[in-house]
Structures are given as structure tokens and as C-alpha cells.
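Standup notes
- HV: blocked on the assembly model, inputs below
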Amino acid sequence: MKVLVTVKRVIDYNVKVRVKSDNTDVDLKNVKMAVNPFCEIAVEQAVRLKEAGKASEVIVVSMGPQNAQEQLRTALAMGADRAILVQSDDVLESLSVAKILAKIVEEEQPGLVIMGKQSIDTDNNQTGQMLAALTGMSQGTFISGLEVSDTEAQVVREIDGGLQTLAVKLPAVLTVDLRLNEPRYASLPNIMKAKKKPLETKSPADYGVEIKANTRLLKVEPPAERQAGIKVANVAELVEKLKNEAKVI
Amino acid sequence: MAILLIAEHDNAALKSATLSTVTAATQIGGDIDLLIVGSGCTAVADSAAKVPGVRKVLVADNAAYDHEIAENVADLIKGLASDYSHILSPATTNGKNFMPRVAALLDVGQISEIMSVESADTFKRPIYAGNAIATVQSLDAIKVITVRGTSFDPAAAEGGSASIETLSQVSDTGLSRLVSEELAKSDRPELTTAKVIVAGGRGMGDKAHFEMLDTLADKLGAAVGATRAAVDAGFVPNDYQIGQTGKVVAPELYIGVGLSGAIQHLAGMKDSKVIVAINKDEDAPIFQVADYGLVADLFEAVPELEKAL
């Protein structure tokens, strides 16, 4: 069974985000970029399936600018076998990404597609579910546990109020949550080896997908700043303030 | 314009997130129809019909919709969509699961977790873990939207008298089935609707110490939450997690204990009305957003606070 896994190039999660002064977007100039943390967990899971003999090949896909190759190389160094970059400098919204992925799924026929549940830039949490819809596949979202058999995957999902276990028919799209695994660091020999692994560059047009905007970004602003309050000296003062000043207890 | 609103419920009553979504729908404008989908959920229809401003309650009660299996629920909503300009759902784990599937089936985008309605097609939503706020206009004919419950006041629950219509069509794709569900049982209020929240971080040290917060919470009638670090360390279950990828909360009073205030956690709680931080590290970032900060050893301060209440 082939496993398809996706990675997105996003701002490194340790970097403090700044909004551009003209309020058109956030400022990504000279900012450290990295693999979206959820995508890293997806790659780790795909590689573990291969190590366990459940997956025959791990194919990693990214979409975006040419330098998204860096993130694909990271995934190859973690253990993916080959990479596809669908190169585009346009803004690719979730639905367009899902449409291109659906074409790749048609070509590659994976038994599982494993994706991060959301990217930490747009925080949309959409693409996996959309891909599942377009391909008619089952979906297991926000998973923190996975068992794969020949015909189905048993997934543990993190839901409001607790955990849910679903059996989803293969082929399926899975989106991963933070607690599924801890991604490995690529070793230096593996980073060197990854440079020789195949990386194919395509365009959205190669897949016959027309990039369409579903939304228009009108403005990006910093959030309302919260002012730091005061330090209280002890518990008695805290209780007094909560009772008489804030009036919340 | 007409809005189809997918209700969040527990087969007995509407969840408060549904009422917040009704408020968002009212701000968009137009007729509002409420869809109750589930298995054994007919009882919810009566309470849904009482929500003022609702035109019609649609009920899809079938085993195929048990636990709101996304493939089946999305198929059902797709079949209803042509009568509506907007499809709204609370941004709960249910809504987040099936709504993007609905959007793709309709060949439209989705606008996730709106926090304000600017006009019928323009909304504000948080991006980059709430470190930026985007104003986004939808260009689609049918607008598929999830709504952040804590950003809208809940609508009134009583006073209306909508008609109730039972849907006979059943969408059963047979793609997924429920194996089991483990829901935390608690007498405390739910995190996302609680008026007071006591949350703990890695500084709590271990599972046993976390129980100190339970005692404090019971005294305050509060819910108990946690940071990702505390969940990952195994102190508490995953559904306690507040933050970018956990729950977003906005209580009247939030008391953060032994947590530093990582941006991912702040993303989930900084809209709280009053924030209290108790931490022995006076440089912890949580103090930059706290209304009242107490630099103290939590193992002394928490029991003392509990006694003082």
C-alpha cells in the first residue's frame, strides 16, 4: 500500500508574527520558515507505517513556491521515498489544494493519505476533509491513535469531551493531531541521502486544475492588545481585588 | 437569503454553541432554519423550535447519523444546500469535521471560526494562532462558515415557535462506523461555556497535584482546563486542553496556575474577561496579559486561595 503524505511550508512556530504596516497581510520577509508541525507528525506516521511493513512507499507532496523544496527535503530526510512539488506562486486556498491532491490521488492510488489537521498560518483545518469529499474517501480527522489493517483503519479521534474510535474504510484520508507521535529528527546521513531522492516539480496546470479564489483577503490587523494589569502581594489582596474591583467572585 | 444552521446537541438539548451561532446568523440576516441531525435526536427538536428567530427546524434522525459521522452528515447537508445562501455550524469538533466536507461537495470554500460578522459576505477570523485577525470576503454563492462560539453571545433559548419538519431522506455512505467513545464524565461546567475556569500547566508537577485545582474549581463552580504541556505530560485528559489546537475559552474569570503562557495557550484564553495568574516565575509571559498577577509558590497559594473563598 502506498501512503501519500503532505507538507506545508509555514512560518516557524517559534517566530513572533508581525502584521505589515499597510495591513495587507503578515510580514514573512526574512522570517524563518519550516515544515508545519502537524505535517511533521503526518510524515512521521507515514514513515512508521513503512518501517512496520504496512506501507510500501511514502510519497510526500507540497504545494507553494519553489523553496518549498526545502520542506520536501526535510520529509525525505525523515524517511519519505520520493517527493512531488506542485509549484505555484499564487495563493492556493484549501479547495484548490484539495483539487490538485485529488488528481495526485487518482494517479498514485494510495491506500492512505495522511495530513496535518491544520496549518499554523491560516488555521483553517479544511484541506483533508475537502480531499476526502472530492475523492469520495472516508475520513478520520484529528487523530491521536492509528491501527491499520488490510481493509480499514481504526483511528482514535480527539473530540470535544473526550476520545472517539472510528473504523474507516480504506482508502482513507487521515488528519493528525499533536499527540499521535513525536516526529524524529533527521540524522545527518539521512539528510545527505535525501538530497539524492527523487523530487518531481509540477504545476497546477499539469493536473488540469484551474486555481480559483473562493475568498478575498481584505485586511489583516494585529489583535487588540491586552494590557498587563497589576501584581498583587498576596492571596488576601487577590481575593479582595476579585471581590471588590473586578467583582467576579 | 436563508441560512441553514447545523445544531450542536447531545440528543437531549441544544448546546450553547448552537445559540451563539444563532446570534451570528441573526447578524448575517435572513431566515434561519435549524438542522438537528443525529440518532435518537428528535427530543432536541422541541427545544430548538423555541429559539426565537428560527423559521423552521429540520430533523434528520437516523442510525446513519449516529455520532454525526462526517461522510453521512455531509451528504445530507449537500442535499439541502440549494435552498440556502449560508450554511453555518459551530466550530466544535463535529462542525470542524463535516463542514469542510460539505463545502467541497458544493465546490465552494469554507470560512473557518469567524469571530465577527462585518456584512453578509465579510467576516473576521483569527489566523496565526490569533496573532493576527483577517477580514475575509467570501466570493462563493453558498457560504459555508464555522462560528467561534465564544465570540458571540448566546441567543435566547425560549420564546419562539418554529415549525418542525422531519426529513425522510437518509444518506448512508457506509464509509465509517463508530467503534467506541470515551467521554469524560464530570459534574463541573463545560470548559467552553464555563463562567469561571481554573487552568493548570506543567508547573503543577504531576497528576496528583493537579487535583488541587479540582478542589479550587469546585469551590468556585469552575471548569478545569490545562495547557498542552500538562496534557502531554499525562496530568489530565486531552479534552482539558485550552489553546490554538485545543479549546477556545472566554470566561468571566480565568485563573492560570503554574503555566507560563505560551502563545499557543494564550490564543485559547486571552479573550477572558478577567485573567489571574499564579506563578513563581515573575518573568512568565502570562503576567503580560494577566489583570492580577501573584508571584508565589502555587503549592502554598492555591490552598490558601481556596480557604480564603
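- HV (later): unblocked. DSSP finds eight helices and 16 strands in chain B. Chain B has two domains: 2-166, 196-308.
- Next: hand off to the docking folks.
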